[in-house]
């Protein structure tokens, strides 16, 4: 079950990106303060293909999961995850960004996903090495991403870092699920961290593109998550039930964000 231990790191690097300025998991991040508003055509393109932030983050997470699955001998799962990574990378490619460094990184990552797919499909002993190389290339890409678009402040940087409101709500949904798992396993410290992440994603979604469609959802969900946070902080036995209730509420409302 090693993959289960790898995924939180992937989520932190690829989705929260505490070490690189791509996603908007922390509304106080300095890069968000200087980001320029996206134009209407840019927003429409992101809504069509998915944001660069979400697609790159999701592709990186899938690559890490593929490598972990390969190490454990679960080749079909690894192959499925590589396909997911490639699909998300193609979403970024379809946006046709005029940034040579980003396009070069995309070319490298797509080449590596093709190699990994071929080796996994043929059950080559070298498949694990190909997946390791894919993860390392993703790591290099994420590390250099804040420098794209003129050192983090240019027009490219804005579209690189901007997630859609609907994507942030989905991130909050995943964080709530992680909080519930942590509470089920008797780990309130991790639960508190995931609940804070869920609340941060909801708050950031208020100002993200497409937020007009989710205001009712946010008005209902933020208090529900806050109740769970307070109960975890107070070590209340009701914390797990409140977190479960918040997940149920959000699950029932997800269709409204499309």
Concise summary:
The protein is mainly α and about 260 residues long. It is built from 13 helices and no strands.
Relative strand content: under 5%
**What's the helical proportion of residues?**
over 70%
What's the helix-strand series? HHHHHHHHHHHHH
Shape: globular
Terminal CA distance: 34 Å
Major sheet: size, sense and barrel closure?
none
Q: How many β strands by DSSP?
A: 0
How many H/I helical runs? Answer: 13
Cα gyration radius (Å): 19 Å
The chain-level mean pLDDT equals: 82
Please state the structural category: mainly alpha
Low-confidence stretches: 1-34
Report on the architecture of this protein:
The protein is mainly alpha-helical and 258 residues long. The chain contains 13 helices and no strands. It has helices at residues 2-16, 30-34, 40-49, 52-71, 75-93, 100-121, 127-144, 148-151, 155-161, 165-184, 188-205, 215-233, 239-253. Helix 4 (52-71) packs antiparallel against helix 5, helix 6 (100-121) packs antiparallel against helix 7 and helix 12 (215-233) runs antiparallel to helix 13. 45% of the residues are buried. Mean pLDDT is 82; it is low at 1-34.
């Amino acid at each position: 079950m090693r993959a289960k231990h790898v995924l939180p790191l992937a989520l932190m690097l690829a989705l929260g990106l505490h070490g690189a300025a791509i996603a908007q998991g922390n509304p106080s991040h300095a890069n968000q303060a200087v980001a320029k508003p996206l134009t209407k055509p840019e927003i429409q393109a992101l809504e069509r293909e998915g944001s660069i932030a979400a697609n790159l983050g999701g592709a990186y997470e899938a690559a890490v999961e593929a490598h972990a699955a390969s190490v454990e001998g679960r080749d079909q799962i690894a192959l499925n995850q590589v396909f997911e990574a490639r699909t998300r990378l193609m979403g970024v490619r379809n946006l046709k960004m005029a940034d040579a460094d980003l396009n070069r990184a995309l070319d490298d990552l797509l080449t590596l996903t093709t190699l990994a797919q071929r080796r996994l499909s043929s059950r080559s002993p070298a498949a694990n090495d190909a997946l390791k190389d894919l993860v390392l290339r993703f790591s290099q890409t994420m590390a250099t991403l804040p420098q794209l678009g003129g050192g983090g402040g240019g027009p490219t940087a804005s579209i690189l870092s901007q997630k859609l409101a609907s994507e942030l709500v989905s991130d909050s949904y995943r964080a709530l699920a992680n909080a519930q798992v942590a509470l089920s396993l008797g780990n309130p410290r991790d639960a508190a961290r995931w609940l804070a992440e869920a609340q941060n994603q909801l708050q950031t979604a208020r100002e993200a593109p497409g937020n007009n469609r989710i205001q009712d959802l946010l008005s209902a969900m933020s208090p529900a998550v806050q109740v769970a946070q307070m109960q975890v902080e107070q070590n209340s036995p009701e914390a797990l039930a409140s977190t479960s209730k918040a997940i149920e509420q959000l699950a029932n409302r997800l269709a409204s964000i499309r």
